[in-house]
Amino acid sequence: MTKNVAIIGAAALPVRKWQRPPDSETDVLEHESLAQVVFEAVKMAGVEKRDIASLAFANPRPYTQQKYFATFIANYLRLPCTGSVAEILGNGMTGALSFEAASNDIRLGRARVALALGVNFESATPAIEHMMNSMKATGDVDFHAPFGFTPISWYAMDAARYIHEFNSSRRELASVAVKNRRHAAMNPIAQLRKPITLEEVLAQKPIVEPLGLFEVPPRGDGAACIVLADEEVARASGKPYVRVRGRGFFHEGAHQINEVPNDMIALVSAQTAGEAAYREAGVTAADIDLAELYAPCTIIEVLASEALQLCPRGQGARLCAEGYTSIGGKVPIAPSGGLQSRGHPAHVTPLYSFLEIFEQLTGRAGERQVGDARLAVTSAELGNYNAALVHVLEGVR
Amino acid sequence: MSLPIITIDRVRIFPPRMTDFSRRFWRSLAVGTFETTRCEACGLYSFPPKPFCPHCWSKQIVWSLLSGQGRLYSQTVIHAAPAAFMAEVPYRVGIVDLDENVRVATRILADEEPRLDGPVEIVGLKYLDGPLFAARPVK
Q1: Which residues from A are below 8 Å from B102, CB to CB?
Q2: What is the pTM of this model?
Q3: What domains can you pick out in chain A, each with its CATH number?
Q4: Is B101 left (phi over 0), alpha (psi -120 to 50) or beta?
Q5: Would the CB atoms of A150 and B14 count as touching at under 8 Å?
Q6: Which domain holds residue B103?
Q7: What is the number of structural domains in chain B?
Q8: For chain A (length 397 residues), average pLDDT per consecutive 10?
Q9: Nearest C-alpha of chain B: how many angstroms from A307?
């Protein structure tokens, strides 16, 4: 075994509001949906059920009735494992941590094939009820929650600061939403696909100023499965695959805000994790052909693109408005449509990023295919990018 | 230095919990004293107050008065709120950098959009069931 990690298959449910209202006679349940995704991904990978040695499962949000889902799905699929079976949690980073756990089993030689998978169903719970939970996850319960902060209110404050410091504008930031919808229009699994104009984005009702409805993610449900394997398995298949070239992680040791004032919008965790990932991959940001970033709001895509050196500091919003980050531009970002339009089934969102990069780097992305795509970067985060997990991925054809 | 105190004739929506340690912060706040912990070993402040120094892990901490004066680092107005706060929308929150080099997040009391980097002051809020704090621009 090479102990190099490759992605050899990937599949996901289209992001939709799959959950039915509580008074419906029948429901759409997580395990039935996920099983179909697993079968599709494993078939694409060309491996057998008996080859799978590890299940790294993204912990679902609390609305999933079936608890301890990892072992439940191991039973549902009758899948004995010699590597590990675990349920992994790390707020918005959850899906990427499950990808890490599956990768680690391959790096350690404990599995030749491992699944990073998960399901996140939550849309039947209204946003205002959901926020009663999420406000306790993205702040200090005793020193932030009493003031009514919401998860995206922190991003909104990033936006206000960015506009102030770099003389940017809501108009420039809103161009990210327009660009992402244009990409999503070409993505069959995207939640929102009808093209929108800049004026429409600006006319939406405010959610957290200066951000309006189209600049924040819709709520939706999803399920995804990524098949990882030792590169030896990938090579033997004779099919295109994706090699994990580098990874970097950093947690800044702060939760939402740094009690010692810092440059909040530099996203130091993304800077540090990105540098580590580029270094391990032996590349620089200039080598990257496309990026699929964890960016719930428009501003976060801009800040992460700057922190990962894909755009110069303070120019990410303007460059997006000029087409630099569109498919066909210099460095396409969020070719899937991103979290605002592809959708954001929270805990599995990072798995959707790996799916998009797998499709792009193996030439499966159809009309949204980025030309000559060989090297890509992904990020996942939690809080207000207080932590970041960055991967550099390479297509091998 | 004593904080201005604003009386609010209802209970807090989501009251903070108190511990034997953090009780001092909230009791002091109730009488207009804004204080937190500072490390005697490395000199840095913490916020929220902690029974140790998170910077150097020393246990040599002292309660130290904060001026309540600072600058507005950022702010937003929340229109989509958790269920418990829906009666208050829209409401303004922000991040304040205090003169002691301490960053706090809190409600911002301002009818018009306040200028970032502009001077703000902390005020005590006296609810029927206990205190909170907020910040407001200094005229």
Answers
A1: 259-261
A2: 0.97
A3: 5-125+219-237 (3.40.47.10)
A4: left
A5: no
A6: 5-137
A7: 1
A8: 95 97 93 98 97 97 93 96 97 97 98 98 94 93 97 98 98 98 98 98 98 98 98 97 98 96 98 98 98 98 98 98 98 98 97 98 98 97 97 97
A9: 20
